[in-house]
Each structure stands twice: as structure tokens, then as C-alpha cells.
Amino acid sequence: MEDEIHEVQTLIFPALVCLILFLFWLCKLPGTNKNLPPSPPKLPIFGNLHQLAGSSSSHHTLHSLAQKHGPLMLLHLGSVPVLIVSSADAAHEIMRTHDLTFCDRPKYKAYNKLLYNCKDVSVSPYGEYWRQLKSIFVLHLLTNKRVQSFRYIREQETTIFAKRIVQESASSGGGPVSLSQMFSEFTYDVICRSAFGRKYSDSENGKKFRKLIMTEFVDLLRTLSIGDFVPWLSWISRVNGLDKRVDKVAKGVDDFLEGVIQQHMETPPKPMFDGENFVDIMLQFYNDHTSGVSIDKDIIKALILDVLVAGTHSTSIVLERVMTQLLQHPTVMKKIRDIVKDKHDITDDDLEKMHYLKAVIKETLRYHPPNPLLIPRVARRDVNIKGYNISTGTIVMTNVFAICRDPTSWDEPEKFQPERFLNSSIDFKGLDFELIPFGSGRRGCPGIAFSVTTIEYVLAFLLQKFNWKLPDGTPGHDMDMSETLGVTLCRVHPLLAVPSQICTL
Ligand code: HEM
């Protein structure tokens, strides 16, 4: 008997030592001994994918989760750690204090096909290539001086837009017009003329292309492919047809862009306003190998896509959202109309003084940020944020929607109140982290001046020339506000409104 006890003891002892060593080794495994941000429960293999994938309101889901787990919350999309940032203070840490650490973008498989191996500005990796491209982009298209030089285009296109409103309303016997559709066409035309020196909406091909970009292309950019997060399941995108859709859309886009470039190569560049247009300038870099900037055709195409996708879609969504708010708040609409009604021509100086219009636009960007999760970033190195260890490769999503509804930053955040901005210095240019619809820091949006100038002008014009109401006197609170999240957030049902012309165009 004693022998048996002794035998058991000799077995238990090494087993215990092994167990202790194993636990010790486990603690040493990367990630297990770290002070990580709080996380909600996750599923095996998929992690928290179900909380983000395919949902049109992931920003709402993430907002609720953050209320439980805090402004820095760690999710797992499959095996990839994703940090969700939900307060102004935490966003400041990421995009100001540690901007250099978080200035990369995630690389998703679909981007390689849709965005020419990430050769564009918005998703290319941080580094010399991105720096060079972004400065060319800004210098030749988006500086304040360039934006001012496009004034003539904004004015012409706004008048054409207003004439279309009159025609379409007349053809339906004074009925409603689809503002969503018209805003999208208007911004497409303004951007194409400013960047490419011509409109593409006049041809059937150009119309098809706009539709392809605004719907399918944008939709694919936001579709999470499971293989990006659980690599051994990447075959699913082949089976469910996602890969085929990406190939088809990428080909459709490339065919059109090849035509655009050919057209520019065959037609001698026409100087416009105070210089050539953006595509012609890109072609000069392409042809001139001594300039020190090496630009190939794919880069030009990728940049055109940045202009169209980043520029057109977001700008038209903001216009749609402002008009939605004005139709829901007729007293706010009247206040703007009282300001614009006596102006003869609306000049840049007039716009500069229209503080209430600016407040309405800011409040709309706060209330409905068009990119509620911004564009994701990636940590380039291990870093400690507010006591939490964040490892290299962690994706960062900033929930601007949650930040803009945070009661510690905003009084009555659920109310649409433009007046809150009248005596406030808070702006959306990336310095006030409670309002960052355009992001901030190195990867912040370079198109703020371009889009805001366009938005201000067209709104002032449309409110000067027309009275607007909802179809059949629908009260504002009955409007269908369902939204769908692409790269930006847009309405599921187009915005319809009835115009009545109040002065000549
Ligand atoms: C209301 C209109 C717009 C909104 C709400 C918007 C919003 C944004 C946001 C949230 C980002 C990501 C910022 C970050 O990561 O910190 C971004 C990036 C970008 N936007 Fe905009 N944008 C708008 C208009 C434009 C326009 C008109 C253009 C150009 C014609 C443009 C070009 C870009 C580019 C190229 C980037 C990528 C910058 C980089 O990664 O370095 N955007 N935009």
C-alpha cells in the first residue's frame, strides 16, 4: 500500500511541476499577460464579426457596446484585433498624440482589385509614396486657391441643377423631385468638371459609370470579406460570388477609366481657369520621366477613383442630410431663407458671413456624420494608450457617431440644434475632437474646403430660389429615415421634396 502511495506521489509531483510550467508559459504567450482594453464576449473563430459584418447600423451597435465596455474597446474580427474608439478624448490620443503610430490603413483583399493594389491616396500604406501622392493631390486640386478657381463651375452647375428642378417638377404637374438623385448627379458633374475638365454624365456610358461607382463600387468597399479576418475561410468569397462581383466591378471601372485617360491623351490639354485640369497634370508626370515623380496609368486611375468616391459620394450625402433636416425643421429652413432672400448673387464673401447656414451644416455633420466609422487605421507598432497595450497590426475604428452623441461633450446630443454652434468656436477641421466628421491628423480628409464650399453655395442658392416642402404635406417627423451604411451613410429611400419657385434663376 505504502508503495502505491509513494508511486502516486512520484507521479503527481512531476505532473504538478509540468502544470505550473505550462501555466507560466501560457502567461508568457503574446497577448495573455497584457493589459488589454475591455472586450465584449466573442464567438469562437469568428470573434465579434457578427457585430460588424453586414449590419447597416454597426455604428449604433458599437455605440451601445461602448456604453457598457468603455471608450476604448477591443473587438476581434476573426483573429484580427480591432480597437473601437468612442470618445473625443480617446480619439485625440489616437489621431493627435499617437498619429504617427496610427497613420496606416488596413489592406483588404478587395482593395487590391478595386483600388489598383492600393495605389490611391486613401488606402495606400503610410510612407514616402503616400506623402508624395497626397501632396500632388492637394496641390493640384484641393488648395483654397484651386477651390476658389472652381467657383465658376459651381455657379454654372448649380444653375443647371436649379433649371432641372423646375423642369422635373413641371413635368410631374408641380410634384416632388428626387433630391437624392439630383444631388448625386450635381456633385458628380461639379467634381468631374473641376478635376477632369469635362462632364461625363452627358453620355450613356458616363451615366452608367456614375451608377456603378455610387452603388456597387461603394458597396464592395464596405463589404467585409471573411478571408481578410479568418484566412482559412477565404474560399467562402469564391463560393458566395463576392470575388466574381469584385472582378466584374473592377473591370467595368477600369474600362471606363482607360477611356477617360485615352481621351485626355488624344485631346491636347486645354488650359482651364488658372491652369490645366488634374488628369492632364497627372499625364504630364506620366510622360515626363525627369520630374522625379514616377506615375503610371494605374496610379492615375486610382487617383481618379479617390476624387470620385471620396469626393462625390460624401458631398452629396451631406447635401441630402442637410435638406432632410431642413424639411423636418421648417423654422430652421425659414431662418436661412431670410438670410439669403435679399442677396442678388451669392458671393464667397456673402457665404463667409452666413453664420447660421454654417451652423446648420456643422450640426448636420454632428447629427449625421456621413462616415460614422471614418476610414479605419492600423497600428504600425506596439503602443500604450491610456494604460492599455495595443499591439502592432490592430485595426482602429473611430466611432464618430458615438463621439457626436456623447453627453459629456454635447448638451442634449439627441436634438438637432444648429444654434449650439453660433457662439462656439468648435469646427470640423480636425482640431476639435468632439467633431471630426472629416477625421484628423496626417490621414485626415484633404477635401474639406472643396466639399464645404460646394455645399454652402448650392444650399444657399436652392433656398434662395425655391420654397421647399415634403410631398403631400407629410409632417417632418413622419419621414422615413432608414439609412444604409456604405463607406458613407445614406438614406435607403430617396429624399423627395416639392419645390415652388420664388424668384427667377
Ligand atoms: C462632405 C464631404 C467629405 C467627407 C465627410 C469626407 C470624409 C473623409 C474622412 C472621414 C476621411 C478619413 C479621415 C481619417 O482617416 O482621419 C477622408 C479621407 C479622404 N478624403 Fe474625404 N471627405 C469628404 C470630401 C472629400 C473630397 C471632396 C475629396 C477630394 C476630392 C476627398 C478626398 C479624400 C481623400 C483622398 C482621403 C484620404 C486621405 C488619406 O488617407 O491620407 N474627400 N475623408
Question: Would you kindly provide a written description of the structure presented here, covering whatever features stand out?
Answer:
- This protein has a single domain (34-501), classed as Cytochrome P450 (Cytochrome p450), CATH 1.10.630.
- The chain contains 19 helices and eleven strands.
- The protein has helices at 2-28, 49-52, 58-69, 88-97, 109-114, 128-142, 144-149, 151-171, 179-196, 204-222, 235-239, 242-266, 278-287, 297-328, 330-340, 348-353, 355-367, 400-404, 448-465; strands at residues 72-77, 80-85, 177-178, 377-378, 383-385, 388-390, 395-398, 466-469, 483-485, 489-491, 496-501.
- The strands form four sheets. It has a four-stranded mixed beta sheet with strand order 1-2-7-4, covered by helices on one side. Strands 3-11-8 form a three-stranded antiparallel beta sheet. A two-stranded antiparallel ribbon has the order 5-6.
- A hairpin with a 3-residue loop joins strand 9 (483-485) and strand 10.
- The structure holds protoporphyrin IX containing FE.
- The site of protoporphyrin IX containing FE (HEM) has 25 residues, from helix 14 and helix 19.
- Protoporphyrin IX containing FE (HEM) binds next to helix 14 and helix 19.
Distance between the terminal alpha carbons, to the nearest Å? 108 Å
Q: Main β-sheet: number of strands, strand sense, barrel status?
A: 4 strands, mixed
Question: Helix- and strand-based class?
Answer: alpha+beta
What fraction of the residues are assigned to beta strands by DSSP? 5-15%
Report the uncertain regions.
16-31
CATH-wise, what's the superfamily? Cytochrome P450
CATH level 3 topology: Cytochrome p450
Number of helices: 19
**How many structural domains are formed by the residues?**
1
Whole-angstrom Rg: 26 Å
CATH architecture: Orthogonal Bundle
- The CATH class is Mainly Alpha
Give the topology string: H per helix, E per strand.
Answer: HHHEEHHHHHEHHHHHHHHHEEEEHHEEEE
Helix content: 40-55%
Shape: globular
InterPro entries: Cyt_P450 (IPR001128), Cyt_P450_CS (IPR017972), Cyt_P450_E_grp-I (IPR002401), Cyt_P450_sf (IPR036396)
Subcellular location: Membrane
Membrane topology: Single-pass membrane protein
Keywords: Heme, Iron, Membrane, Metal-binding, Monooxygenase, Oxidoreductase, Transmembrane, Transmembrane helix
